[in-house]
From TrEMBL:
Phylogenetic lineage: Eukaryota, Viridiplantae, Streptophyta, Embryophyta, Tracheophyta
GO BP annotations listed: long-chain fatty-acyl-CoA metabolic process; suberin biosynthetic process
Protein name: Fatty acyl-CoA reductase
Keyword Lipid metabolism: yes
Native source species: Linum trigynum
Family annotation (Gene3D superfamilies): NAD(P)-binding Rossmann-like Domain
Length: 627
């Protein structure tokens, strides 16, 4: 069992990477984070039923719920289905409910086997995808659990499906105790889990630890850094793998980013091949893997060696276009060789530059999205018979509704700018006023993840399916409108200065050129510091002020430069696959797992949900009244 492996000798001939094969391929050697369209209903999708319960739990941590079996149902024909269907035999996806005492209550009809599959619209209306039924009893292996998105995923799984199987969490740590400590402090202690904490009361931690199993590991390491016995145990128990681990720094060192974002998926896919009952591998990618593509961008998987610069230059004659070729193995070799060649003192900066240079030459905006795109390519190349979903969210921001509105972690993507603006430290930005910020709330991304897992995990077709979870086509948030919403928010709920006085902010000015933006920054910073000019008669004071002013201008320009590929982005992400997925959901599933980005009221979300969430959960209430 090989892997598309960096730094692992011996390499196969390079041409093997270009051949799409079901066999694994081995390869050698090897800041800053980041009105609804209706479509015809598709009837092609089939609602397969799959019993998931009754799985043997081998981790030694007992579930607070006794094991129970749910019947395995064999697929029947549509005719059989239509004859059999009756309200008594249709299992409603929302039938698992929490009783008043907080203990999950299994409704009797849950135990009634459901017969599927069929393309009958009758069944789709009643049963939908069967998300809860599919996930019941399933074992998960999730990476990136200490990160923002995976926490929201874990919370949702456990809150809505308390009889899920074990959820193994790959966590970087020096030993088991340290991994457990990270689980408790970084995950379970998060405010995100307050609903579950209220539901389970004193048994919260016991219950959570009966489901969540922290395992020490690292996606960059061979066999994921897992001890062999543990790796075997997980491989026997896992139905679904979700890879959410990533390095999301736009301008990360090339060696670091390629290791996590390209080699990581390769190592996980090698592990996936050892999982006997694996039903699905889901890779959390990003919509921005589409790099410098323009216009409406469809949900198409990358093939090995796809190169966006070549796509964008396809009018060039072959010879010229051949300058733009992507060979991942060569990229890895380049990283290795360059690393050796650079002086140790300059290796960090040079690796950063190399990542950006390679990304931009080959058609991506930065190292992050370039290495994530290569991660997708490697997965497609290695997947063989394993069903794969590539989930590409755009910019993930705070939760829309669940478990409560506005939960957020980390100061990412547009948020530093939103916060500087609110504090009166930034009154303008370099951005296309008519451009679009493609944002999706984290809980919608998670709902889409679960719906896609259930649908494709049930079907188990050896396919790769891509879902762009994005708003720019169906419900675009235009930058100049965003500026107005931020203005509204901060004028009704201003930050306060150190003297407790409200900070009033003007409407943010949007600049299309760096020169104009830079000029504005200087004017602004001079004015804010109460200076009429940088140089004054008092040499010392003037120098100090100039230093402060220059620093803050440079900082703002750096931010603007890093964000420019996003604030002037020319692509819009098609999300038809997600829309089709939602059409397959029952009404009950739409309520519990809906991710209709077209229905988001941006005014309400930005002013009442996201920015207040950011101020509360990221800024911890600092700068608001009484704090
Ligand atoms: N946030 C967004 O706006 C956004 C948008 C689109 C797509 N995405 C994608 O969504 C996924 C989750 O993003 P996020 O915002 O949750 O990221 P995040 O908060 O930065 O979390 C990244 C996670 O990856 C883990 N990780 C990093 N290197 C690892 C390694 N070598 N081995 C194992 N785990 C490792 C981190 O663990 P440590 O805590 O130990 O560092 C952390 O748990 C990523 O794949 C990202 O590309 C994010």
């Amino acid at each position: 069992m090989g892997s598309f492996f960096l730094y692992s000798p011996p390499p196969p001939p390079p041409h093997s990477l270009l051949v799409r094969t079901n066999k694994d391929v081995k390869i050698s050697s090897g800041g800053h984070r980041w009105p609804r369209r209706k479509k015809g209903c598709t009837t092609s999708s089939v609602v397969f039923c799959q019993g998931g319960g009754g799985k043997a739990i081998r981790s030694g941590v007992g579930s607070v719920f006794g094991g129970r079996t749910s019947a395995l149902v064999t697929p029947t024909t549509a005719t059989d289905q239509e004859q059999q269907i009756s309200p008594a035999t249709v299992m409603d996806a929302s039938s698992l409910v929490l009783a008043v005492n907080g203990q999950p209550e299994i409704v009797v009809k849950d135990l009634v086997p459901y017969s599927g599959p069929t393309s009958s619209s009758l069944v789709e209306t009643h049963d939908g995808i069967g998300i809860v039924r599919f996930l019941r009893g399933k074992g998960f292996f999730i990476t990136g659990a200490t990160g923002f998105l995976a926490k929201v995923l874990i919370e949702k799984i456990i809150r809505t499906m308390p009889d899920v199987g074990k959820i193994y969490l790959l966590i970087k740590a020096k030993d088991k105790d340290a991994a457990m400590a990270r689980l408790k402090t970084e995950i379970l202690n998060a405010e995100l889990f307050k609903t579950l904490r209220q539901t389970y009361g004193k048994s919260f931690q016991t219950f959570m630890l009966s489901k969540l199993v922290p395992v020490v590991g690292d996606v960059c390491k061979s066999n994921l850094g897992l001890e062999q016995e543990l790796a075997d145990l997980i491989a026997d128990d896992v139905d679904v793998i979700v890879n959410s681990a990533a390095n999301t720094t736009f301008d990360e060192r090339y060696d670091v980013a390629i290791d996590i974002n390209t080699r990581g998926p390769s190592n996980l896919m090698s592990f996936a091949k050892k999982c006997q009952k694996l039903k699905l591998f889901l890779q959390v990618s990003t919509a921005y893997v589409n790099g410098q593509r323009q216009g409406k961008i469809m949900e198409r998987a990358f093939g090995m060696g796809d190169c966006i610069a070549r796509e964008n230059n396809n009018s060039l004659v072959c010879e010229a276009a051949s300058r733009f070729t992507l060979d991942i193995q060569d990229e890895v070799k380049m990283v290795m060789n360059s690393k050796e060649a650079f002086h140790p003192n300059e290796v960090a900066i040079k690796m950063r530059e190399l990542g950006l240079e390679r990304a931009r030459k080959l058609g991506w905006q930065d190292t992050y999205v370039f290495t994530k795109a290569m991660g997708e390519m490697v997965i497609d190349n290695m997947r063989g018979e394993i069903p794969v979903v590539i989930l590409r969210p755009s910019v993930i921001e705070s939760t829309y509704k669940e478990p409560f509105p506005g939960w957020m972690e980390g100061n990412r993507m547009m948020d530093p700018i939103v916060l500087y603006y609110g504090k009166g430290q930034l009154t303008g930005f370099l951005v296309d006023p008519n451009g679009v910020l493609d944002v999706v709330p984290a809980d919608m991304v998670v709902n889409a993840t679960l719906a896609a897992i259930a649908r494709h995990g049930m079907e188990q077709k050896p396919e790769i399916n891509v879902y762009q979870i994005a708003s720019s086509v169906v419900n675009p948030l235009i930058f100049k409108d965003l500026a107005k919403l931020l203005y509204e928010h901060y004028n009704s709920s201003p930050y306060v200065d150190s003297n407790g006085r409200p900070i009033t902010v003007p409407l943010m000015k949007l600049f299309s050129s760096m020169d104009d933006f830079s000029e504005h920054l200087w004017r602004d910073v001079i004015q804010r510091n109460g200076l009429t000019a940088i140089t004054s008669s008092d040499g010392k004071l003037s120098q100090r002020h100039e230093f402060i002013c220059r620093k803050s201008v440079e900082q703002a320009k750096y931010l603007a430069d890093i964000y420019e590929p996003y604030t002037f982005y020319g692509g819009r992400f098609d999300n038809s696959n997600g829309e089709r997925l939602m059409e397959l959901m029952s009404e009950s599933e739409k309520r519990r797992f809906g991710f209709d980005v077209g229905s988001i009221d941006w005014r309400d979300y930005i002013t009442n949900v996201h920015v207040p969430g950011l101020r509360r959960h990221v800024m911890k209430g600092r700068g608001t009244n009484n704090n």
